[in-house]
Amino acid sequence: MRLVWTTTLILLCTLLISCFATDRLSNVSSPNIIIMLMDDMGWGDLGVLGQPSKETPHLDAMAAQGMLFPNFYTANPLCSPSRAALLTGRLPVRNGFYTTNAHARNAYTPQEILGGISNEEILLPQMLKKKGYASKIVGKWHLGHRPKHLPLKHGFDEWFGAPNCHFGPYNNTIRPNIPVYNNSEMLGRYYEEFTIDRKTGESNLTQMYLQVGLEFIHRQTKAQQPFLLYWAPDATHAPVYASKHFLGKSQRGRYGDAVMELDYSVGQILSWLQTLGIENNTFVFFTSDNGAALMSGPNEGGSNGPFLCGKETTFEGGMREPAIAWWPGHIKGGTVSYQLASVMDLFTTSLALAGISAPGDRIVDGVDLIPVLLNHSHTLRDRPIFYYRGNELMAVRLGQHKAHYWTWTNSREELKSGINFCPGQEVEGVTTHDQKEHTLQPIIFHLGQDPGEKYPLSSHPQSPCSSTEQSQP
Length: 473
Hints:
By secondary structure, this protein is α/β, with parallel strands linked by helices.
């Protein structure tokens, strides 16, 4: 399955230019939608957000041509529940795909867990079918690995990727390596047919995911059918990997190599849209599923910039994500929106773009960001952000203030074994290793003045949860 990606790109580009140079498609009523979801990529990994090595030129250009969201959040600081929230528009405590603080419920989906996304949940591709959208997921699914839980059973028309992350290698009868699928056909397994060299970090997986995504865009454009592409590579999840062309190129080591290849891939996809003449009819959104995994650092973990802690915590580093919206001719280039926004909003916004109403038989937590995207409106700014860890509401943000009702990083047992979710970032009374309750007097931070959550306010203003303007989950 190795691809000679440079040759393929040149040949495919030549074909596309010859096919479409004289036949640029006019806009259709329903725009195409591309959601790019990275895996464990941190807020501080992008040059436009301050990464000093400036190794993300394509993402920085995407922000210059589109809209940057510095206040964008995931719905959970772990992979599985955040992905479920994106595709359902609902908090994990509503869609049933969440983790508790000590045990998993449907999250992680390792091979021993039989659960997955519920059939009662309505996913984004199922809704978009109402307007004739074709849909494809490329990369990591992570919402269940049993046949009844796989993407084609939940609205996606096509899939190339794996049900779980590239953990392992396991390679035994009890825990075999993770399978890779093309639709319903298993093509092989990670570390076997799909090589990942644990010693060098070399793998062609990101290039495969890029090529498959480009081919889908090409095919749907030729068919003049609107599409949803959910592009979810996992190269920045430990153990990180990159193709030979990118290995050793980053100042940041192997993790940086993976980021550089993903940045290149984003640039190729945006360039493809322009080559095909469909950039004005394609809404693209780039973000990550949770904060950088600091416990994998420094060699295989990213940066959360100025924010406290990382993946698996409800501090800012665990849940604030890099986010860029791109839609030439519609979104004014070079704009920055300080709107509080969530990955769940991508569900509701995508439906609005397609002219579809959200399901009326359930609560949908995502809001429509079109007024922000098209008019640079801030009318939604007072919406709250809820920080859940499992089924426990740990904190709430409203405006610039964030109130912690519970604090906890990871257990003392894990800490003693060398696992630390907040390495070098201990804040007394805040980064606790026992779950501490503060419901009677929340620990409050002003995130505008103190984005790193290091200095609790000595005199507590009105708690965000007591605001009369707050929406209730």
